[in-house]
Amino acid sequence: MPDPCIICVAITGSVPTKDNNPAVPITIAEQIESTHEAFEAGAAIAHCHVRNDDQTPSVDPDKYGRLLEGLRKHCPGLIVQLSTGGRSGAGQARGAMLPLRPDMASLAVGSNNFPTRVYENPPDLVDWLASEMLRLGIKPEIEVFDLSHLYQAVAMEKDGRLQGPLYVQFVMGIKNAMPADRHSFEHYVETVRRIAPGASWCGAGIGRHQFTLNEWSIELGGHARTGLEDNVRLDADTLAPSNAALVRRVVELCEKYERPVATWRQAREELNLPLAT
Q: For residue 75, which of 127, 141, 9, 123 has the smallest C-alpha distance?
Protein backbone atom coordinates (compact mmCIF):
# COMPACT_ATOMS: atom_id res chain seq x y z
CA MET A 1 0.00 0.00 0.00
CA PRO A 2 1.56 3.35 -1.03
CA ASP A 3 2.06 5.93 1.71
CA PRO A 4 -0.83 8.39 2.11
CA CYS A 5 -0.25 11.85 0.63
CA ILE A 6 -0.69 14.79 2.98
CA ILE A 7 -2.33 17.75 1.25
CA CYS A 8 -1.49 21.21 2.54
CA VAL A 9 -3.67 24.13 1.45
CA ALA A 10 -2.19 27.63 1.55
CA ILE A 11 -5.43 29.54 1.81
CA THR A 12 -4.32 33.15 1.27
CA GLY A 13 -1.04 34.97 0.88
CA SER A 14 0.41 37.92 2.73
CA VAL A 15 0.01 40.32 -0.20
CA PRO A 16 -3.25 41.61 -1.73
CA THR A 17 -4.51 39.20 -4.38
CA LYS A 18 -8.28 39.59 -4.13
CA ASP A 19 -8.40 41.72 -7.28
CA ASN A 20 -6.78 38.88 -9.23
CA ASN A 21 -9.31 36.32 -8.05
CA PRO A 22 -12.35 37.18 -5.92
CA ALA A 23 -12.26 33.65 -4.46
CA VAL A 24 -9.14 34.47 -2.41
CA PRO A 25 -10.30 34.69 1.23
CA ILE A 26 -9.20 37.86 3.01
CA THR A 27 -11.16 38.34 6.24
CA ILE A 28 -10.95 35.90 9.13
CA ALA A 29 -14.49 34.69 8.44
CA GLU A 30 -13.70 34.15 4.75
CA GLN A 31 -10.53 32.23 5.62
CA ILE A 32 -12.36 29.95 8.04
CA GLU A 33 -15.09 29.20 5.49
CA SER A 34 -12.61 28.59 2.67
CA THR A 35 -10.42 26.37 4.83
CA HIS A 36 -13.42 24.34 5.98
CA GLU A 37 -14.33 23.62 2.34
CA ALA A 38 -10.72 22.63 1.58
CA PHE A 39 -10.62 20.42 4.69
CA GLU A 40 -13.78 18.65 3.58
CA ALA A 41 -12.19 18.17 0.13
CA GLY A 42 -9.12 16.43 1.57
CA ALA A 43 -6.64 18.97 2.97
CA ALA A 44 -5.01 17.97 6.26
CA ILE A 45 -2.81 21.06 6.76
CA ALA A 46 -3.75 24.73 6.41
CA HIS A 47 -0.91 27.23 5.91
CA CYS A 48 -2.16 30.58 7.16
CA HIS A 49 -1.44 34.31 6.93
CA VAL A 50 -3.57 37.18 8.23
CA ARG A 51 -3.94 40.75 7.02
CA ASN A 52 -4.79 44.16 8.37
CA ASP A 53 -8.06 45.88 7.43
CA ASP A 54 -6.29 47.58 4.49
CA GLN A 55 -5.13 44.12 3.30
CA THR A 56 -1.50 44.77 4.19
CA PRO A 57 0.35 41.85 5.81
CA SER A 58 -0.11 41.45 9.56
CA VAL A 59 1.49 39.56 12.44
CA ASP A 60 -1.27 40.60 14.86
CA PRO A 61 -1.58 37.78 17.43
CA ASP A 62 -5.24 38.70 18.00
CA LYS A 63 -6.09 38.10 14.34
CA TYR A 64 -4.13 34.87 14.31
CA GLY A 65 -5.83 33.85 17.53
CA ARG A 66 -9.32 34.37 16.10
CA LEU A 67 -8.35 32.43 12.97
CA LEU A 68 -6.86 29.58 15.00
CA GLU A 69 -9.93 29.40 17.23
CA GLY A 70 -12.28 29.30 14.25
CA LEU A 71 -10.30 26.64 12.42
CA ARG A 72 -10.13 24.40 15.46
CA LYS A 73 -13.87 24.78 15.96
CA HIS A 74 -14.97 24.18 12.37
CA CYS A 75 -12.17 21.85 11.19
CA PRO A 76 -11.50 19.50 14.13
CA GLY A 77 -8.22 17.66 13.64
CA LEU A 78 -6.91 19.98 10.94
CA ILE A 79 -3.19 20.76 11.31
CA VAL A 80 -2.88 24.54 11.52
CA GLN A 81 0.40 25.99 10.33
CA LEU A 82 1.06 29.71 10.84
CA SER A 83 3.51 31.66 8.70
CA THR A 84 6.60 33.38 10.08
CA GLY A 85 7.48 34.64 6.60
CA GLY A 86 9.26 37.91 6.04
CA ARG A 87 6.53 39.71 4.12
CA SER A 88 4.37 39.99 7.23
CA GLY A 89 6.86 41.61 9.58
CA ALA A 90 10.48 42.23 10.47
CA GLY A 91 12.78 40.69 13.04
CA GLN A 92 11.26 38.89 16.00
CA ALA A 93 7.85 40.38 15.18
CA ARG A 94 7.63 37.57 12.62
CA GLY A 95 7.16 35.15 15.51
CA ALA A 96 4.66 37.22 17.51
CA MET A 97 1.94 34.61 17.03
CA LEU A 98 3.99 31.61 18.14
CA PRO A 99 2.79 31.78 21.79
CA LEU A 100 -0.63 30.77 20.42
CA ARG A 101 0.94 27.32 20.01
CA PRO A 102 -0.26 26.32 16.54
CA ASP A 103 0.51 22.76 15.47
CA MET A 104 3.15 23.97 13.02
CA ALA A 105 4.85 27.12 11.78
CA SER A 106 6.85 27.78 8.65
CA LEU A 107 10.58 28.34 9.05
CA ALA A 108 12.99 29.50 6.37
CA VAL A 109 16.55 28.75 7.52
CA GLY A 110 18.39 30.82 4.91
CA SER A 111 18.05 33.83 2.64
CA ASN A 112 17.38 33.98 -1.09
CA ASN A 113 16.19 36.31 -3.83
CA PHE A 114 12.53 36.96 -4.55
CA PRO A 115 11.34 38.75 -7.71
CA THR A 116 12.01 42.29 -6.46
CA ARG A 117 13.82 41.91 -3.14
CA VAL A 118 15.96 39.72 -0.93
CA TYR A 119 14.07 37.41 1.39
CA GLU A 120 16.25 37.92 4.44
CA ASN A 121 16.55 35.22 7.07
CA PRO A 122 19.67 36.11 9.08
CA PRO A 123 21.16 33.38 11.29
CA ASP A 124 20.29 35.06 14.59
CA LEU A 125 16.63 35.40 13.62
CA VAL A 126 16.48 31.83 12.32
CA ASP A 127 17.94 30.58 15.61
CA TRP A 128 15.46 32.64 17.64
CA LEU A 129 12.44 31.44 15.67
CA ALA A 130 13.66 27.85 15.90
CA SER A 131 14.22 28.17 19.66
CA GLU A 132 10.72 29.55 20.17
CA MET A 133 9.20 26.69 18.18
CA LEU A 134 11.23 24.20 20.19
CA ARG A 135 10.22 25.83 23.50
CA LEU A 136 6.53 25.95 22.61
CA GLY A 137 6.30 22.48 21.08
CA ILE A 138 5.57 23.73 17.54
CA LYS A 139 6.73 21.60 14.62
CA PRO A 140 8.56 23.66 11.98
CA GLU A 141 7.92 23.26 8.30
CA ILE A 142 11.34 23.93 6.78
CA GLU A 143 10.87 25.99 3.63
CA VAL A 144 13.69 25.05 1.27
CA PHE A 145 14.30 27.65 -1.43
CA ASP A 146 17.86 26.47 -2.09
CA LEU A 147 19.76 23.22 -1.54
CA SER A 148 21.89 24.88 1.15
CA HIS A 149 18.73 25.38 3.22
CA LEU A 150 18.25 21.62 3.40
CA TYR A 151 21.80 21.09 4.63
CA GLN A 152 21.34 23.88 7.20
CA ALA A 153 18.15 22.30 8.53
CA VAL A 154 19.87 18.95 8.91
CA ALA A 155 22.76 20.61 10.77
CA MET A 156 20.27 22.35 13.08
CA GLU A 157 18.57 19.03 13.82
CA LYS A 158 21.91 17.38 14.61
CA ASP A 159 22.96 20.10 17.07
CA GLY A 160 19.58 20.25 18.77
CA ARG A 161 18.25 23.55 17.43
CA LEU A 162 15.49 21.65 15.64
CA GLN A 163 13.70 18.57 16.89
CA GLY A 164 13.40 15.80 14.35
CA PRO A 165 12.18 14.17 12.35
CA LEU A 166 12.21 17.08 9.93
CA TYR A 167 9.37 18.14 7.64
CA VAL A 168 10.77 19.98 4.63
CA GLN A 169 9.06 21.72 1.75
CA PHE A 170 10.83 22.30 -1.56
CA VAL A 171 9.65 25.61 -3.04
CA MET A 172 10.18 26.00 -6.79
CA GLY A 173 9.09 28.41 -9.48
CA ILE A 174 9.75 31.77 -7.76
CA LYS A 175 11.50 34.19 -10.10
CA ASN A 176 15.19 34.62 -9.18
CA ALA A 177 15.07 31.51 -6.97
CA MET A 178 14.91 27.78 -7.81
CA PRO A 179 13.13 27.07 -11.10
CA ALA A 180 10.62 24.25 -11.44
CA ASP A 181 13.14 21.86 -12.95
CA ARG A 182 12.54 18.10 -12.78
CA HIS A 183 16.23 17.16 -12.56
CA SER A 184 16.78 19.61 -9.70
CA PHE A 185 13.67 18.38 -7.94
CA GLU A 186 14.79 14.77 -8.16
CA HIS A 187 18.16 15.84 -6.74
CA TYR A 188 16.35 17.51 -3.81
CA VAL A 189 14.43 14.30 -3.14
CA GLU A 190 17.53 12.09 -3.41
CA THR A 191 19.43 14.42 -1.10
CA VAL A 192 16.81 14.56 1.64
CA ARG A 193 16.50 10.77 1.57
CA ARG A 194 20.27 10.47 1.87
CA ILE A 195 21.10 13.07 4.54
CA ALA A 196 17.80 13.05 6.48
CA PRO A 197 16.34 9.58 5.96
CA GLY A 198 13.72 10.07 8.64
CA ALA A 199 12.36 13.31 7.18
CA SER A 200 9.04 13.82 5.44
CA TRP A 201 8.96 16.13 2.43
CA CYS A 202 6.56 18.16 0.32
CA GLY A 203 6.72 20.05 -2.98
CA ALA A 204 5.31 23.53 -3.55
CA GLY A 205 5.15 25.13 -6.99
CA ILE A 206 4.40 28.80 -7.50
CA GLY A 207 1.94 30.09 -10.10
CA ARG A 208 1.62 27.90 -13.18
CA HIS A 209 4.12 25.47 -11.63
CA GLN A 210 1.75 24.47 -8.83
CA PHE A 211 0.19 21.51 -10.63
CA THR A 212 3.61 20.42 -11.93
CA LEU A 213 5.05 20.21 -8.42
CA ASN A 214 1.87 18.55 -7.16
CA GLU A 215 2.31 15.78 -9.72
CA TRP A 216 6.05 15.33 -9.22
CA SER A 217 5.63 15.14 -5.45
CA ILE A 218 2.82 12.61 -5.55
CA GLU A 219 4.58 10.51 -8.18
CA LEU A 220 7.83 10.37 -6.17
CA GLY A 221 6.20 9.55 -2.84
CA GLY A 222 6.08 12.95 -1.15
CA HIS A 223 3.34 15.28 0.00
CA ALA A 224 1.76 18.22 -1.84
CA ARG A 225 0.92 21.87 -1.25
CA THR A 226 -1.77 23.69 -3.18
CA GLY A 227 -3.97 26.74 -2.61
CA LEU A 228 -4.77 30.28 -3.64
CA GLU A 229 -1.69 31.74 -1.96
CA ASP A 230 0.52 30.23 -4.63
CA ASN A 231 -1.75 30.03 -7.66
CA VAL A 232 -5.16 31.54 -8.48
CA ARG A 233 -5.94 29.55 -11.64
CA LEU A 234 -7.18 26.12 -12.63
CA ASP A 235 -5.66 26.65 -16.07
CA ALA A 236 -4.48 29.51 -18.27
CA ASP A 237 -8.03 30.71 -18.94
CA THR A 238 -9.90 29.78 -15.76
CA LEU A 239 -9.68 31.30 -12.30
CA ALA A 240 -9.91 28.77 -9.49
CA PRO A 241 -13.33 29.11 -7.83
CA SER A 242 -12.03 28.13 -4.39
CA ASN A 243 -9.22 26.57 -2.42
CA ALA A 244 -11.31 23.42 -2.33
CA ALA A 245 -11.23 23.21 -6.13
CA LEU A 246 -7.43 23.22 -6.05
CA VAL A 247 -7.43 20.54 -3.35
CA ARG A 248 -9.69 18.39 -5.48
CA ARG A 249 -7.13 18.64 -8.33
CA VAL A 250 -4.54 17.16 -5.99
CA VAL A 251 -6.95 14.41 -4.92
CA GLU A 252 -7.35 13.50 -8.61
CA LEU A 253 -3.56 13.24 -8.95
CA CYS A 254 -3.45 10.98 -5.91
CA GLU A 255 -5.98 8.73 -7.61
CA LYS A 256 -3.89 8.75 -10.80
CA TYR A 257 -0.81 7.54 -8.92
CA GLU A 258 -2.80 5.28 -6.59
CA ARG A 259 -1.79 7.27 -3.51
CA PRO A 260 -4.41 7.43 -0.77
CA VAL A 261 -5.13 10.92 0.55
CA ALA A 262 -4.01 11.22 4.16
CA THR A 263 -6.69 11.85 6.72
CA TRP A 264 -5.92 14.37 9.43
CA ARG A 265 -5.23 11.47 11.79
CA GLN A 266 -2.75 9.90 9.37
CA ALA A 267 -1.11 13.27 8.78
CA ARG A 268 -0.68 13.86 12.50
CA GLU A 269 0.82 10.40 12.92
CA GLU A 270 3.23 10.95 10.01
CA LEU A 271 4.34 14.31 11.41
CA ASN A 272 4.50 13.15 15.05
CA LEU A 273 1.81 15.57 16.15
CA PRO A 274 -0.70 14.88 18.93
CA LEU A 275 -4.16 13.83 17.85
CA ALA A 276 -5.84 16.52 19.95
CA THR A 277 -4.96 20.21 20.38
A: 9
